[in-house]
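Model it.
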Amino acid sequence: MNTKPLKTYGKRTDKSMRTIVRIEKFRSKFHNKLIDYLDGFDLTFNQFKVLEVLYHRGDLNIGSITKLTTSTPGNITVVVRNLKRDGWIKAISDPEDRRASILTINEKGIEVIEKLFPDHAKNVHKLLEVLSDDELDTLYELINKVYKAN
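Modeled.
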């Protein structure tokens, strides 16, 4: 077995890269668990994000949904079209701009979110229960600091 010495880019850079890899591995593990969970409700991850934001934030235009779900305009257009087609959401006229529409979650969408979200919240809680409240606060503050700086 050929074992090459690991290439180093400097102590700080190596730590930074190792940290980013760990964050990505955790994100991927969480994402995969969520995808498996959502599959039982016949929802994709992107459909879930749109339904969740409409349920918790209320009626929104497509631009706001795009920003809140960190999606791209092209992707969100397809997701919204499919959610409307399948009866999860509907479009209503924007009273402030007749050329635009506001999206609203309908009864079918509300039912599925109210059915899946409590267990989703428990799953998120369980993933992070290894941390104390103070550690969870610190983790959030640190990630938020890096997020805002970039």
